[in-house]
TrEMBL record:
Lineage: Bacteria, Pseudomonadati, Pseudomonadota, Alphaproteobacteria, Hyphomicrobiales
A GO molecular function held by the record: branched-chain-amino-acid transaminase activity
Family to which the UniProt record says this protein belongs: Belongs to the class-IV pyridoxal-phosphate-dependent aminotransferase family.
Biological processes, Gene Ontology terms: amino acid biosynthetic process; branched-chain amino acid biosynthetic process
Cofactor: pyridoxal 5'-phosphate
Enzyme class: transferase
EC number: 2.6.1.42
NCBIfam families: PRK06680.1
Function: Acts on leucine, isoleucine and valine.
GO cellular component: cytosol
Entry keywords, A to Z: Amino-acid biosynthesis, Aminotransferase, Branched-chain amino acid biosynthesis, Pyridoxal phosphate, Transferase
Name of the protein: Probable branched-chain-amino-acid aminotransferase
Catalyzed reactions per annotation: L-isoleucine + 2-oxoglutarate = (S)-3-methyl-2-oxopentanoate + L-glutamate; L-leucine + 2-oxoglutarate = 4-methyl-2-oxopentanoate + L-glutamate; L-valine + 2-oxoglutarate = 3-methyl-2-oxobutanoate + L-glutamate
Organism: Paramesorhizobium deserti
Amino acid sequence: RIAYVNGTFLPLEEASIPVMDRGFLFGDGIYEVTALIEGRLADNEAHLQRLDRSLREIGIPNPYSPAKWTAIQNELITRNGLLEGLIYIEVTRGVSERDFLSPADLKPTVVMFTQAKPVRANAALSKGADVITVPDLRWARRDIKSVSLLAQVLAKRAAAEASASEAWMIEDGVITEGASSTAFIVTQADEIVSRPLSHAVLPGVTRRAVLRLVEEKNLTFVERTFTVEEALRAREAFFTSASTIVMPVVSIDGQPIGTGKPGPLALELRELYIKTLLATR
Ligand code: PLP
């Protein structure tokens, strides 16, 4: 596998960053993940826009233009012969002596690699996802896609311990989002519900794309918070992310949602998303 580090393409095993990198020492950096399906980058412009915003919010200069980012991504995809999988970007504040403050002229560290994996044909799809709930232990600026992911790692470990694939995080009695996804329910009144964007959640790129599809289908989308109790009464539940697209949820904390089988609307939105992507270019 070929990786990209600060302007150089090299074998992943040879790719490294200095111990004094602030991403390693402080989690002082941000990341993005874009999916690749049949050689097409999914919603990549939106991912690069969010990358730019995350960097701006924490005062790291964006080292590249969108065109340059895309060119590097495409070269990495070509060098890896990747047709389907994920492309990961990380930007840290850079390398300097360990101190909370850093020199103003620090050069950001840029790392990129690919992961070949089935995105479209997800093995979890036929059965649907089991979800557990955990307290949301994260910081107050979850709209920034920070590499400081300790709370998410712990949430995913708890999920795995319970043989679940995702954890939905709870704060003030309502679901904020999944450890690595945006949470949705479909109510008995056929409203598609997801909480409004704020500092409390990451503005999901896939969330936005799915909302466009919901609008095109003239379905009702309601932006509001919801509780676990409401989710348990829902007709369907699902989550969205770049790597899972739209994933139906069949149980929460061991309690079945709807029929206990993947919901038809979630599956339809998933197929529509893929169809729309493959129809572009
Ligand atoms: N929420 C969190 C906390 C995430 O980590 C992710 C993706 O990793 C998402 C939501 C979904 O975002 P996107 O659809 O842009 O991948």
